[in-house]
Amino acid sequence: MCVENTFHIKAYEIDAMGIVSNIVYVKWFEDLRHLLLDKYYPYQDMMEEKKSPILMKTEVEYKKPLTIMDTVYGKAWFSNLGHTKWEITLEIGTKDTLHCRGKQTGGFYSIEKNRPIAFPKWFVDVYTECQKGNDLYHPTESDFDEIINVWEASVRATHTFLKEEDISFFKEIGRNQALYSVDLVCIKDCTNRIVAFMGIDGTHLEMLFIHPDQRGKGLGKFLVNYAIEKKRVNTVDVNEQNEQAVGFYLHLGFEVTLRDAVDGTGKPFPILHLQLKSN
């Protein structure tokens, strides 16, 4: 769970010697913390859930001065996650030199209960997955070609009932239509490669695909649980002939509510409509 940013030193941020003032590093820390939280738990979501982030402590270790001529890079990541407290490690530096390191301690606060609260399960799950080298990623249109390549590799490995012309047909629909109509969430591995993705429309899981070389690592379960807990997803449609996928969703607590003899395009591929069981 990490973010990086470039900072441009302003004239009013230096002293008479041309050295960046110490308080500026703290401001950069704040910018990085807000970027980090907004990436994994947007403030709009927190406000809707009557939660707020709180900062308890900031520690700063100054190592080497910066001047107005330097190009500054900042990095922040969650270095520890307890039951109600997180720790963020922050670094400010130039290309080859670390100029300042810091640590911030904080947590989440319930506006309704007026006290610190435990982290949501989905947030802990994201942290745990990131510790394995995988990162949650919200893609843009520039990622669509890479995403559709993951789709094709996954389909060829799991949808053995499809013919070549079927794959080409659905690939075109996916690349030019479907990816634009859903809320996409991806997983990137430690090499920055997209290895899994899902698409959500409201409370419906429209698509979920894992690259074949990443199957069996729990990525699908992680994404579905994230969709259920964070996005309130409760329905999904599955090709009946994809028996592994049907079994996967049934194992995660879904149940079949309806069967269609054809898919949404009218092709003769039976579709099962599943809904999450009530607890």
Provide structural commentary.
Helix 3 packs antiparallel against helix 6 (219-229) and helix 4 packs antiparallel against helix 5. The chain is built from seven helices and 13 strands. The longest helix has 19 residues, at 22-40. It has helices at residues 22-40, 43-48, 121-131, 144-158, 164-176, 219-229, 243-251, and strands at residues 2-7, 51-62, 72-81, 86-93, 98-110, 115-117, 135-137, 183-188, 194-201, 204-210, 235-239, 254-260, 271-276. A seven-stranded mixed sheet has the order 7-8-9-10-11-13-12, with helices on both faces. Strands 1, 2, 3, 4, 5 and 6 form a six-stranded antiparallel sheet that branches. It is 30% helix and 34% strand. The protein is an alpha+beta fold. The chain folds into two domains: 2-119, Hotdog Thioesterase (Thiol Ester Dehydrase, Chain A, Roll), CATH 3.10.129.10; 135-276, Gcn5-related N-acetyltransferase (GNAT) (Aminopeptidase, 3-Layer(aba) Sandwich).
Q: Taking strands numbered 1, 2, ... along the chain, how are they ordered across the largest sheet?
A: 7-8-9-10-11-13-12
The coarse silhouette is: elongated
N-C termini distance: 31 Å
Write down how many β-strands occur, each being a DSSP E stretch of 2 or more residues.
13
CATH topology assignment of the largest domain: Aminopeptidase
Could you state the CATH homologous superfamily of the largest domain? Gcn5-related N-acetyltransferase (GNAT)
Spans of at least 5 consecutive residues with low confidence: none
Class inferred from helices and paired strands:
alpha+beta
Q: Could you name the CATH class of the largest domain?
A: Alpha Beta
Q: How large a portion of the residues is in β-strands, by DSSP E?
A: 25-35%
